Amino acid sequence: MQDTREGVVNLAQELVRCPSVTGEEDRIARLLQSLLPHYGFDEAMIDPYGNVVGRIGEPVPGGLLFDGHIDTVGVHNPEEWRHDPFGGEAGEGKIYGRGIADMKGAIAAAVVAVAELRQEGWSPRVPLWLSGTVAEEVAEGVLLEKVLDLAQPSTVIIGEATALNLMVGQRGRAEIVMEAAGKSVHSAHASLGINAIDVAVRALTAIQGNYQAPFSESLGEGSLVATDIISDPYPGRSVVPSRCVVTFDRRVLLGETPQSVLQSLDDCLSPEAGVRVRLASYDFRTHTGIAVKGESFAPPWYFDSGQERVQMALAGLNRVGIAARIRTYGFCTNGSSSAGKRNIFTLGFGPGDEGAAHTADESLAIEQLVEAVRGYKELFSSLTGG
């Protein structure tokens, strides 16, 4: 059997060296599909939406699905990188590169875990599925829905970074657009028009003064952050803008709906504010050319830490020497689909720290990568009855 450290490091580096910005996952999808049979999978395919789906066992409902998204954000600040973003360089006990923490390292660890289990004679009683999903960075959970339709699992493991802790939930995410209307005139005669930027600023001030973030003991605060603002026309040379759009990131708690989230902003504004709020929309094509559209609302999810299945998973990780603790994710994951929409029992476990995602010199500690292989072996075998 190949040394675990060497095997998982080599595979993680190979995945990092294959750029896969959202919408451009074709190459890594074909690479992963070609690799899975060599790591013990009975079948590997690319579905019409571009997701890679591997399977061990008969394709019947009730199995275990491990999910890791294969898309990454881009490299918008190359001057800040000391390491080649797509070099997969190793040094100082880490691997560097775009997507190593979010989340190619976890995919590599899961694949190597399967290979080692198969070499040890493991034969799961229910099917084990592995999905390399696309477009998670722009629409959390949306493309995992297609895999869930196919696999119909009873349990899902999300491989997003947990620092080897066991995650039992996450806040959801709503992307909200506030649109302010004005009246365009020449900027030399601004008093004759209505400046949409001024309207937006007054509305922002009202929201900042009146918004009360909801809070729950299980998931924390339903935070609201303005992430983007742009006027129209842009650039506005000598023109008072007739339109200004502000985008908000709203973290969503259990029990909140698209309607209640929008109402929480409306409640901060007077009827004369001159703005309207709505959910943002996503509209993109997968790397296979299929159009995907919808509203940007990913629901939250949470499973009580006292549940027997949670405690069994935690005990298993502890038993193999991983000092995992029960936590919840700070960011949004594909679990919004499996748990948030479908209430499929879902846990999060993966190497790396949340804070490393999307950063310059993104990195992952090799020791965590190796330990993740051990953790996945325990979870895969115990949750499939193997």
Q: Can you walk me through this structure?
A:
This protein is α+β, with helices and mostly antiparallel strands and 386 residues long. The chain has two domains: 4-171 and 300-383, Aminopeptidase, CATH 3.40.630.10; 172-285, Alpha-Beta Plaits, CATH 3.30.70.360. Helix content is 29%, strand content 25%. The chain contains nine helices and 21 strands. The protein has helices at 4-16, 26-35, 100-119, 144-151, 196-210, 258-266, 308-319, 335-341, 366-383; strands at 43-46, 52-56, 64-69, 90-91, 94-96, 128-133, 155-158, 166-170, 172-181, 215-216, 220-221, 224-232, 243-252, 275-279, 281-285, 291-295, 297-298, 301-302, 326-329, 345-348, 363-365. The strands form six sheets. Strands 1-2-6-3-7-20 form a six-stranded mixed β-sheet, with helices on both faces. Strand 10 (215-216) and strand 11 form a beta hairpin.
Share of residues in helices: 25-40%
Silhouette: globular
Instruction: Look at the structure and name the CATH superfamily of the largest domain.
Output: Zn peptidases
Taking the alpha carbons of the first and last residues, their distance comes to 20 Å
CATH architecture of the largest domain: 3-Layer(aba) Sandwich
Whole-number average pLDDT?
Answer: 96
The helix/strand order is: HHEEEEEHEHEEEHEEEEHEEEEEHEHEEH
Amount of beta strand: 25-35%
DSSP helix count? 9
Number of domains: 2
CATH topology-level fold name of the largest domain: Aminopeptidase
